[in-house]
Design a protein that fits this description.
alpha+beta, Endonuclease III, domain 1, 4-stranded antiparallel beta sheet
């Protein structure tokens, strides 16, 4: 698989916490990323990519012979997950211009993104479907990461399908829609999110909500955020986080962790107001949210990674 230059698989995989959630499987030492995929024809395969000279090596495992069209579909799904088709050149140009201002002594509130420009950071690991990204986003709201991990693991274990290389798929909208909200409270331990998960799955399974269309929507980001916020359970953070995974970085997708992290980096006792934060990152234009994310996660990717 061809990749843009510069590109670092580990940098993209660990761009945020999705790699730590089932059904993703990541071998950091070998630099191999894999997961089960449900293809459009219903077949389950295990797809994985690994670093290789000139790009990424891809392979797909299945029970029985895998057709060329099926292999191609799995390969394209992994490309989509790694955001390899996202054009980051406009961001790199804007960030370079802003970095020149910072280096010239102007813009004291601008983040130092030299590491990101040098290493090609900015691609965020995504799920094969927007539905999976939406469900996982709901599972990150108002809780610890350990609870997020537990909820997603419970979902996959209870409703996922067995995969060729072990593990289980992420559940389909139809599988989730077939269960009542009580199931999500009692089995998944989703708490107040239970009715939101149930409602989202029913909308998608019944064809009343086309989440995949959000990837290519021509709507401005503000309008798209408004559409997402109409969904039960999607407040400002959740809607903007999902926008981020759609490649829309106009908004900051602030939560308690990122606010506290910014305050710490800037030597503040208390997190600045959201208005102040918006002003700090405004020079990055439509890439403001990405610039913010790269600043708060920079120490994840240094010589001694400091994972949260």
């Amino acid at each position: 698989m061809l990749v843009p230059a510069p590109f670092d698989l580990d940098l993209t995989v660990r761009s945020h916490g999705w790699y730590d959630l089932p059904p993703w499987q990541y071998d950091a030492e070998r630099r191999v990323l894999g997961r089960p995929l449900r293809l459009s024809g219903g077949r389950i395969v295990h797809a994985e990519v690994a670093e290789a000279p000139g790009g990424l090596a891809f392979r797909a495992l299945a029970r029985g012979r895998l057709g060329s069209a099926e292999a191609r579909e799995a390969r394209e799904a992994m490309r989509r997950c790694l955001a390899l088709d996202e054009d980051l050149d406009p961001f790199r140009r804007r960030a370079g211009e802003v970095e020149a201002l910072r280096a010239g002594g102007r813009g004291r509130d601008l983040p130092d993104l030299r590491w990101a420009l040098a290493r090609g950071a900015g691609r965020l690991l995504r799920s094969p479907t927007v539905f999976e990204d939406a469900v996982k986003t709901l599972c990150t709201t108002n809780c610890t990461w350990s609870l997020t991990r537990a909820m997603v693991a419970n979902l996959c274990e209870a409703l996922g399908e067995p995969a060729p290389a072990g593990g289980r798929t992420f559940p389909s909208p139809e599988a989730m829609a077939a269960r009542p909200a009580r199931f999500y409270r009692e089995r998944v331990r989703a708490g107040y999110r239970a009715p939101f998960l149930s409602a989202l799955a029913r909308l998608v399974a019944r064809g009343r909500l086309d989440l995949e269309a959000l990837r290519t929507s021509p709507l401005p980001s503000d309008d798209l955020a408004g559409r997402i916020r109409e969904l039960d359970g999607f407040g400002p953070y959740a809607s903007e986080h999902l926008l981020r995974l759609l490649g829309r970085h106009d908004h900051l997708a602030l939560d308690s962790w990122s606010r506290a992290r910014i305050a710490s980096l800037r030597g503040r006792r208390r997190p600045p107001s959201d208005r102040t934060l918006g002003r700090w990152y405004a020079p990055y234009g439509p890439w403001a949210g990405l610039a913010m994310w790269l600043e708060v996660t920079a120490d994840w990717h240094g010589p001694a990674p400091a994972w949260p």
